[in-house]
Design goal:
The chain is mainly β. The chain has no helices and 11 strands. Strands 2, 4, 5, 6, 9, 10 and 11 form a 7-stranded mixed β-sheet that branches.
């Protein structure tokens, strides 16, 4: 059955680290790219990081060199390692499985809150 379950969010201080996890099932994980998005109150949702089915990655400029996205095709899980966190990183973070065909459709997790205090 289709599931995308995020975990790992929390309240931390600036400079700390968090690792977000997205455990999936039923989404044909192995053939998909995966992505992390975030949305702060009153702001547009933005793409944070993306990883291809072959583990090629790209990042938003605001998180490059601080965040790392990774995946395990056996565990069907994608992670976002967040280091040197800043208050500006405060947002709800969402795991996304993009649509790749009319059959392999888009899915979203429910989100996990990350709050970074100064």
């Amino acid at each position: 059955q289709v599931q995308l379950v995020e975990s790992g969010g929390g309240l931390v201080q600036a400079g700390d680290s968090l690792r977000l996890s997205c455990a999936t099932s039923g989404i044909m994980f192995t053939i998909r790219p995966m992505a992390w998005y975030r949305q702060a109150p009153g702001k547009q949702r933005e793409l944070v990081a993306r990883i291809s089915s072959g583990s090629n990655t790209n990042y938003a400029d605001s998180v490059k060199d601080r965040f790392t996205i990774s995946r395990d095709n056996v565990k069907e899980t994608v992670w976002l390692q967040m280091n040197s966190l800043k208050p500006e990183d405060t947002a709800v973070y969402y795991c996304n499985a993009p649509r790749i065909s009319s059959v392999v459709t888009e899915y979203w997790g429910q989100g996990t809150q990350v709050t970074v205090s100064s």
